[in-house]
Structure formats: structure tokens, C-alpha cells
Amino acid sequence: GGLMLRTGFFPLAFLLHFFPPKGPIDGSPPFDLRWGENPLPGVPPGRHHVRVWFRYMFFGECGVADGVIDVPPEGMFLEYKAPTWFVFNRGRFPALEQQQVVAAQAAGGGAWHPDPTGRADQRYWDGQAWTGHVVRAGQQSWDPV
């Protein structure tokens, strides 16, 4: 049971090794993680909000990734990937992004959904494909897929 959280970064961003990630679950105080495998056996089955980030030098939260997960009774695996080059970009939970794409495609009609690329808050699904219409911090703009 519980949650196995694997955290990682692109090898050429090796300086991140000196800035370990942190992660609150369900709004708890942030707890220390390490780069690599992080078994979290105390996470009960059910829906949870997971947030992972790291401090970089004197900056605050960098590489933030937020996600909602449904932990089954047997437990689950979740992977966090830090931003590749620019630490202020968002981090990613690749498995959750894939779930969002499948759900958006199953929805059929056009609608706004969380951006599967992670470059914006929301991206428009026109019923057949993702468009370049995005929303960042409440402002609509264009960002080609």
C-alpha cells in the first residue's frame, strides 16, 4: 500500500542534486524528499492532492508540479520530473498528463482542459485535437502545440 514517488531530473541539470525536492500531500506541511525513490507508506487509499517542488539557491518554489491522484488499496507509483533547463518552469507528473489527454479525447466535444504539455494552465481541445489556444494566469493567448 501507500505511494512510491520517484523524483528525477535531466542529467545535464546535475546541480539540482544539491537542491532536494519537497512535497506536501493534501495540504500537509512540506516534507523532505530525495532525488530517486521515495516510499510513502502512510498514504491511505483514496483521492489525494500531491505537490512536488524544490528550492533553487535563494529562490522559492521551483519546478512545481500539482496533481490529484487516486491511490488504490494496493498502492501506486508516481513519477515527478523536474523542468529540463529552466528551473522556474513547471515540473511534471507524466502519468497524470497522459490520463488528462485520454479523458479529454473521451469527452469528444470542444472544451478547456489542463494543458498536457505543462506550458500553460489550460489548453483547448476542439473535439479532435489540441489547439494553440491556451490560458495562463487567467489570460488567453496562443501557443502552438
Question: What does it look like?
Answer:
This protein has 145 residues and is mostly beta strands. Helix content is 10%, strand content 43%. The chain has a 4-stranded antiparallel sheet, with no helix packed on it. The radius of gyration is 16 Å and the shape is globular.
Write the layout of secondary structure elements.
Blueprint: E1 3-8, E2 21-23, E3 31-32, E4 36-40, E5 46-55, E6 61-71, E7 76-81, H1 94-107, E8 111-114, E9 122-125, E10 130-136, E11 139-142
Parallel strand pairs: 1-7
Antiparallel strand pairs: 1-4, 2-3, 2-5, 5-6, 8-9, 9-10, 10-11
Provide keyphrases for this structure.
single chain; 145 residues; mainly beta; four-stranded antiparallel β-sheet; 11 strands; globular
